[in-house]
Design goal:
TIM Barrel; alpha/beta
Amino acid sequence: MISRLVDRIVDTGAPIVVGLDPKLSFIPDRIKEKAFSEHGASLEGAAEAFFQYNKEIIDSIYDIVPAVKPQIAMYEELGIPGLITFKKTVDYCKEKGLIVIGDIKRGDIGSTSESYAVGHLGSVQIEGKTFRGFDEDFATVNPYLGSDGVKPFVSVCNKEDKGIFVLVKTSNPSSGEFQDRIIDGKPLYEHVGEQVEKWGLESMDGSYSNVGAVVGATYPEMGKVLRQIMPHAYILVPGYGAQGGKGKDLVHFFNKDGLGAIVNSSRGIIAAWQNENYKEFADGRVGDAARAAVLDMKKDIADALK
């Protein structure tokens, strides 16, 4: 699966993943009003507004980015209607040729972790027929429970040709409370990075592994170290844009050939129509604003990597 993602990055020239993290406050009134008129001011109505909003964005960016990353928590807020919209969003993105990274941050042990992996990346057999649950291409995984929590995902990845991104050094301000703790002479995130590299060797796909890593753009020096520790891991880089990361912060996450990392931006793209920098789209043209924001991000990263 990672080779497919790399091919799409090369084809689009954009090491960018768009976070599809909808909030009602991001959605123009025209979309909400239509959804509520058809489904009521309800969980179902909000879920329909989410899907129509996502669809406008997807239709405007699918040809210039390789991947999207829906964050399941935004959809879980709406209960079952939200999860239905999550699944509809995954399916629609794949119809458009996009690679889907399910931002689910799951991590448990044994059969529980296996069920998470199967539900999001794998398939189940029922009366001789094969069915798929959410069917993303990649999923994010929390490694706090150790190999017991990660290896079931690796097994499903190997069986289904899917991939994962393991949390190593996250972009949030308090990440250091645990991740920066010195253990046996080095920070915990380095130990996790070393383990990611080991897990990855069990799932190689060309030059890279199907086991990637999440490393925040807000910590560029740590990213430089982790790039060396995990030579076979593709790095998913959150924290660009709204969280403060800039193109210049990303250089060390990439290899010399411009590959090795994919950078996420969520509200900086999907809510760009509300940003003063894109005020020409303030009338609610969410798709046009998103496309403009992607192109600006693409240029920012390209300029930094020159």
